[in-house]
Each structure stands twice: as C-alpha cells, then as structure tokens.
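Task card 7
Instruction: Convert sequence to structure tokens.
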Amino acid sequence: MKKNIEKFINTPIDDYDQMNYDLTNGQEKGSTTYIDIYDNCWKWKPGTFNIISGYQNEGKGQWLRFICLIKALEENKKFVFYSPEDYPSSAIWLDLIHTLSGCSTDKDNYNFISPKQYDEAYELIKDKFYFVYIKPPNNTLSEIMKSFREILEKDKDCFGFIIDPHIKVMRDEDVAGLRDDLYGAYVTSTLCDFSRTNNVITFLVMHQNNPEKDARGCYVEPDTYRIKQGSSYSDTADSVHIVWRNNYAKDKLDTHVIIGTKKVKVQKLVGIPQLFPLNFNRKTNRYTNLDGTDLYNFSKHFNRHEKI
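Output:
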C-alpha cells in the first residue's frame, strides 16, 4: 500500500520496470461483478473513483449494496459505507440479509425469515462490512476520509468505500466558500487520490437535477451532465453509473429499472458504457432479468433450511 505521497515527478526512465512488467503481464484489468451483462459495461477496478447517479428514491444505494454483497460473498472482499440515510446501521445489515436469503426481515411480512435462515445469513456477512456514522455538522469530507483511513489501517482487506449520498456531506470550513465547480474538483480529487494511493475503489452516490418529463409523462433518462452541483463530478470520475426507474413517475409500483454506465474512462480494462433493462423483485429484495430469473445465484452461498 502506498502512503504519504505528497509529490513526485517521473520520466519514462523512472517507470521502466513497471512498463516492462505491464508489457509482459498485461495491465491490471477490472475483475468480474459476477453478473455477466454488467461485466460488459463495468468491472471492479482498484484505484478508481466512481459515481452512481439517478433520481431520488429509485434504488441507487440498493443496486450498489447488491453488487457489493455479491463481491463480498464471492471473494471475501470488504466494504465500508458512510450511508447516513441507512441509519441505524442495523437496517443496512438486515437489508443485506433479505437479499442474501430472499426472505423478508420485516416481521409483519408473510415471507418472514426463519431463525435458522437468519443465523446462516448473518454468519456470511458479519465480518465483511463496516458502517460509518458522523453526527452533523461534523460529517465533513475530511472527517469521513479520516474514518475511512482508520478502518483501512486496521483492516487491509477493505476493498470498497462508499459515500451515500453526496448531499449528506457537509463542507469543510476551508472550502465552504468555493463555487460548486471548484468544490466538485476538491471532492473528486480527494476521492481519486484516496483510491489510487491505497489501491481501493470508491463510490460517490449523487442525485440528478430536478427531472424533466418526456412525452409519456415519465422522467427523462439520467445523464452525466444532469448530476447535481455540476458536471465537474462526472468529468473527473473513472466511471459514471445510473439507476433509472423509467416508469416510476407514472406508476410508483412499477419495478422495471434500467441500470448501466454512462461513462467508463479506461474501457479496454473496465467495460464499454451501455444500459440494461432489469426488474426488481420486492419479495426477495433482488434484481432479476426481465423474465424474473435472478441476476445472481445466491443459493450457492445460502441453503434455505425451510421453504418460503
């Protein structure tokens, strides 16, 4: 792990050994999401800063937890969430257990998880996730990053760091007066540096500007240039993902969702930007193909003791 890099100036001579290594072995490519169609548009690439954006209440955090859970189960990767909207932290763990088991963690639901199912799911997630909470107004980016570094120092297996959402981060006093575009440069450069110097992945969850409606009366497709507080965020991100419930404005019960990437900086190593239509199964808390089949087979990790 690289640490305390303040400044350096290199020439090709300085990087000769690394260049030869990459030439012989190939540059490090992104690793699979274990979702075949999503691998086409994005893969997990350490050292990258990523944005996930969409309109309010359309599942940005839900999708992010979904792909983090899969990576954790498959490779024992660990993830750190600064996610104040999911406070108390027990709520996010119960949501993960719902997805893993396919059984509700809401006691009033007929699909309620059994004690054996709960214990089995808990054992699978208990050491793979961290939750950071910082009471306002101290929840500044510098304090969040300080917490991230403290966790990483203690647990070198941490792979992904998520800030969800950006709107719940207070400005540090020394940058409080910056214009939005300059503040965006401060935020993105901070997260880029943390990602690259520690060889981890960061995600920043961001909302879209107030939505326009199309001829159907539905919200228009989210875009990199509609991200709140300016395009400087998407301009500097390594990838920009969107989650879009394209019928939500007209029908709040509709569970169709379009997910994918709008930008990928290094496409030959990570994926080509494209979108995919999916569905969200409220009963199992999982994303599915349009025919209802699961995007990912959680049963390889979780064996139900009782039928739902």
